[in-house]
Amino acid sequence: MTTSVLSSLDNLKLPKWLSADQNQSAATFDRTYLLLAVSMYMIGLVMVASSSMPVAERLFNDPFHFVERHFIYICLSIVVAVITMSIPMSLWQKHSGHLLLLGILLLIVVLVVGRTVNGSTRWIVVGPITIQAAEPAKLFFFCYLSAYLVRRREEVMENVKGFAKPLVVFGVLGALLLMQPDLGTIIVMFVTTFGLLFLAGAKIWQFACVSGVGISLLSALAYFSPYRWARVTGFLDPWQDPFGSGYQLTQSLMAYGRGEVFGQGLGNSIQKLEYLPEAHTDFVMAVVAEEFGFVGISVILLLSMFLVLKALLLGRVALRKEKYFEGFFAYAIGIWISFQAAVNVGASAGIVPTKGLTMPLLSYGGSSMIIMTMAVFILMRIDHEIRLQSIQATSKKKLKKSKVKQNVTASKTSNKPETEQHKEGEQYDWI
Questions:
Q1: CA 73 from centre of chain
Q2: What is the C-alpha separation between 354 and 2, in angstroms, rounded?
Q3: Domain ranges of the chain
């Protein structure tokens, strides 16, 4: 089944700019990733400015408070991007275990000295900087999982023990995340882990068991937690309690309804005037829908889709080149971005229950912005190393061909009769 899924991707006919074929260009990196990231940055900066001014004016007496901070986060993301591009993928693979321990340590530290906002303890305050511990923990866990699948791929495919080990690690991280609490991050990590194990070749019955246990646990967590159950009931019928559990969703749906096809125009949103809570973070897509309509939402979703497709195709190319860690890591990033974007848009549109997940590269949030930038530029680094490998292989082939031609020419010359060689030499005595 896994083979059929991967082979179906081979039949895709994509434009050259979207294709992950490394032979199409002599460039040493794919500029499309940079173009997509910068486009999302710019759209996000404009939308954060549009959606956050009313609440910033009330809270800080400065309408540009969140815009300035978001711009600083973008600048920090660019610095992090440059550093990430300079780190070889071999170092990520070598230190994947250390990174996992660092992620676990961050999740423990946030429970001890973290700052609590709206009942959730998710942020570590370091001077003027706040770090959301769950964001780097996600990236480090996916790095560890990719390295594990390289080391234990046959074990994962053959027995339950290899399949269960990463789930135990996920269970430890999930328990720490539940203490914050942060169920949205757990769901993202679970889906990504599920997808990676599937692509690594685990058996279907194993997935059936894990999915059954996972759904049962999530259902229990929702049912026995009053505020989570209120979110579920509010999602099923938000108009039943429009000023209580369904308030946020009803305001978001109003924003979607007012946007129609082309929207009300930039800055003309009404719901952002402190009717819609968290308009610049979790519900920024509702403001996009109101101001730019169906067209604006479609453009952002297309940009995210292209980025995800590039990541998945890059993972396929990496596996073909026998760069298994890079391939699984690219797959993990692609699944992660696609699912988080789907949950964010789905929550604002009333398709799934509301979750505290940001829109990748778009929503306000320093930790999410920086970590997502790292993920995108890890894809660029993987692409860069594969291209260098292809260029080096091509140059070696050309060098071998030239050596073979030289040897053939030399052998022909040496095989000539002595008289002919003497005469041929005499012709050029004057040079």
A1: 17
A2: 32
A3: 29-389
pTM (predicted TM-score): 0.84
Distances (CA, A) of 427 to 153, 213, 409: 67, 88, 19
409 three-state secondary structure = helix
Nearest 5 degrees, angle CA 158-CA 162-CA 167?
135
Q: State the virtual CA torsion across 321, 322, 323, 324 in degrees, nearest 10.
A: 130
Sign of CA dihedral 410, 416, 418, 423: negative
Whether 125 and 108 have beta carbons less than 8 Å apart is answered as no
How many Cα atoms within 13 Å fall on the side-chain side of residue 334? Answer: 25
Would you say 173 and 141 are in contact if contact means Cβ atoms under 8 Å apart? yes
Cα 411 from Cα 370, distance rounded (Å): 61
User: 379 and 316 in contact (C-beta within 8 Å)?
Assistant: no
Dist CA 344 CA 297 (whole Å): 12
Q: How far apart are CA 390 and CA 44, in angstroms?
A: 35
Residue 130, beta-bridge partner list = 125
DSSP 13: -
Cα 332 to Cα 31: distance, rounded to the nearest angstrom: 21
355 contacts: CB under 8 Å, gap ≥ 6: 183, 184, 187, 282, 343, 344, 347
Q: What sign does the CA torsion over 415, 417, 420, 426 have?
A: positive
What are the phi and psi torsion angles at 79 (to 5°)?
A: -60, -45
Q: By C-alpha distance, which of 354, 363, 360, 184 is closest to 252?
A: 354
**Per residue in 64-101, pLDDT tens?**
989 999 999 999 999 999 999 999 999 999 999 999 99
Q: Which residues contact 200 (CB under 8 A, 6 or more apart)?
A: 149, 153, 156, 157, 328
* Spatial distance between the Cα atoms of 286 and 255, rounded to a whole number of angstroms: 6
Amino acid letter, residue 54: P
pLDDT per position as a tens digit, 148-186 = 988 887 777 777 777 788 888 888 998 898 888 888 888
